[in-house]
Structures are given as structure tokens and as C-alpha cells.
Amino acid sequence: MRILVVEDERALAEVVAEGLRDQGMAVDLARDGLAAAAKLDFTVYDVVLLDRDLPGLHGDTLCRLISERADRPMVLMLTAAGAPGDRVSGLTLGADDYLAKPFHFPELVLRIRALARRRPDARPRHLHAAGIELNPVRRTAVRDGRDLHLSVKEFAVLEALLRASPGFLSAEALLEQVWDENADPFTNTVAVTVGRLRRKLGDPPVIATTPGVGYRIG
């Protein structure tokens, strides 16, 4: 799941981003509305966490622009303006949900996952292939009745491969979906993570690799 956090308060933005990364999400940051608009032109996001009072381009204006996009992500307004009238105006602008600061972080995570499931192109909650069952909401993965104890990144890679199944995902696509804009495309991070995941999935092998194409469950 790819998330864009648009927040001009650096400390809060970094805390939120690190917390979401710990939940297996790929997170990019933008400190103002103009930077966020530029990122939206180059990356497809599942959810945007949007502060309203932004420099450069106000959050209300950015929300309207997002709502008009063909590939629009879901928008969760995350702002100190939490009065009922503020929530109504935010939702009227095109936001899909509204959470006032200060907030309870577990609630934020649940709201993000709920919004991602509401996207028009969202896949089923439970993913199945090759004897593997994965529940992204409960963060559980099982193969042939055996619990899989996966790291955050291993779980996210498996989820991405299952969502793409029976198709392939390139290493570049996995970097984009599982890591974030700070990931070095020239490292072997994907190969190392897939290798660890293969070992934990056990025999018979279920992750196929085609050089120059990518990885798939099959």
C-alpha cells in the first residue's frame, strides 16, 4: 500500500511516516501542497493523508484537485480543525474521511486500511494462491495450514505478489509498492527480501523468477 503524507510540521510527519512504515506501508512525504501535487503526477497512491493548512497550495485546493483525478487516491484529512462544521466542509471538498488532531495512532491505521479497501479497484480482503492465505487486515499469513512468521517487508512483498497473481511483478514495481521514494533502485533489497520470503514459505517453491520480467506466485 502506497501512502502520501502531506504535512508541513516535520516532526509529526516523520512520526506518522515511520509508524505507517512499521505497519508495512510504503510512505512518501510532502511538506507543502505544491510538492504533494507534483508527487501525485508521478506516483499512484492508495491513500493521501492531507493537512488542510498547508503552505504553497492550501490543503482545501489540493483536495479539490485530487477529487477530479481519474486515478484519484482516497483522501483522509488529518487536521487540527476538528469541529463538526470543519468535518462537513472537508468532506464537501472531496475528502473521504476526516480525523482531528491529536489522534490515536491505531485508529489512524484502521482508517487508512478501511479507505484503501473502499477504492474502486480494491482487491478482496483475503488473498489466496498456491496454498497461501493472507489477510491484510489481521496481518496474518498461512501456507497449507502453517502460520508464516514474516517481517513487515516480507509480508508486504507477499501481499503485493498475491495481488498481482497470476501476473508478474518486476523488482522496480515491488520497490514502488513496498518501499518508498527513498529506496535505491540499484540495490539488491528486493532480491534479498524475496530470498528470505522463499525460505519461510518452504517447499515446494511457489515464487517463480523470470530474468528481465520479475517475480510471481505460481
Automatic annotation (TrEMBL):
Top-level taxon in the UniProt lineage: Bacteria
Presence of the UniProt keyword Cell membrane in the record: no
PROSITE patterns named among the record's database cross-references: OMPR_PHOB (PS51755), RESPONSE_REGULATORY (PS50110)
Domain OmpR/PhoB-type: 124-218
Keyword DNA-binding in annotation: yes
InterPro entries: CheY-like_superfamily, OmpR/PhoB-type_DNA-bd, Sig_transdc_resp-reg_receiver, WalR-like, WH-like_DNA-bd_sf
Record organism: Actinopolymorpha singaporensis
Annotated signal peptide: none
Alphabetized GO MF terms: phosphorelay response regulator activity; transcription cis-regulatory region binding
Ranges for domain Response regulatory: 2-116
GO terms under biological process: regulation of DNA-templated transcription
Protein name listed in UniProt: DNA-binding response regulator, OmpR family, contains REC and winged-helix (WHTH) domain
